[in-house]
Write a structure and sequence with these properties.
It is a single chain. This protein has 253 residues and is of the alpha/beta class. 43% of the residues lie in helices and 18% in strands. Strands 7-6-5-4-3-2-1-8-9 form a 9-stranded parallel beta sheet. Strand 2, helix 3 and strand 3 form a beta-alpha-beta unit. The longest helix is centred in the C-terminal third of the chain and has 17 residues. The two termini are 30 Å apart.
Length: 253
């Protein structure tokens, strides 16, 4: 892992707190980044699909450069979330892969999100990104339901088999049992593959417990908001920090 990521020992201890940036213009993106870093975000996620000029690589690279300067001690994660996965824009497969490659080659980013299930020949794509020195979060999102436990486990393993460094799964629960099944899939996968870092969450109000219990069930990162949210159910950064610190203290007693 990149040095900034190593210092956090991802997958061990309290989950890292990631703040997503869902602004449209460069100045707003950078302003929120500065605020998030000052307020203690350990990971900053730039949601590139919110940037209206994302297809103009020169302007995208300028923002990446600025964010890298801001994130001297903060892990920088970049994500283009497609509409089919709950994002703001949709690129063609070729455009999406080219964007991923451009970001990786820029050298500005610590982690890059890749939608493994949406990506044709994901293994080959990840291999190329790795060759450029890029670490990958392989992700899958369900904004309408929660798959069966077996399917969730299978998809986390598929993401691992594709070569992703971290596996991410987000689901939308319809009831408490859905949340329990997401947690079950997480802890079972973590028990079977203890060295495979996972990021899992059930979204919405029902899923709040999954966002704060990663240290218990095996999710190494959680998402908190600084104003705007990128997915339903995210708690404010300050609240999340206080809750996770209390849980960690309780576990260590």
């Amino acid at each position: 892992m990149a040095q900034k990521i190593k210092q956090y020992t991802i997958g061990k201890g309290r989950p890292l707190i990631c703040v997503p940036i869902v602004e449209i213009e460069k100045d707003q993106i950078c302003q929120v980044a500065v605020q998030a870093v000052k307020q203690g975000a350990e990971v900053l996620e730039w949601r590139m699909d919110w940037f209206a000029q994302i297809e103009q690589w020169g302007k995208t690279e300028q923002i990446l450069s600025e964010l890298a300067k801001i994130c001297q001690e903060t892990v920088l994660l970049c994500t283009f979330r497609s509409k089919s996965q709950g994002g703001e824009q949709q690129l063609s497969q070729a455009e999406y892969i080219q964007l991923m490659q451009n970001v990786a080659k820029s050298g500005y980013v610590d982690l890059l999100d890749l939608e493994v299930m949406e990506c044709a020949n994901a293994s080959a794509v990840i291999e190329k990104l790795h060759q450029a020195g890029q670490k990958i979060i392989g992700s899958q999102h369900y904004f309408s339901h929660t798959p069966e436990t077996v399917q969730m486990r299978q998809e986390l393993l598929q993401i691992q088999e594709a070569g992703a460094d971290i596996g991410k799964l987000a689901v939308m629960p319809q009831n408490a049992m859905d949340v329990l099944r997401l947690l079950e899939a997480t802890v079972q996968t973590k028990e079977d593959y203890p060295d495979y870092p996972l990021v899992t969450m059930a979204m919405g109000g029902l899923g709040t417990v999954s966002r704060i219990s990663g240290q218990i069930f095996g999710s190494c990162m959680t998402f908190a908001s600084l104003g705007k949210i990128s997915a339903p159910g995210q708690l404010p950064l300050q609240n999340m920090t206080e809750i996770l610190e209390k849980i960690s203290e309780s576990i260590q007693r």
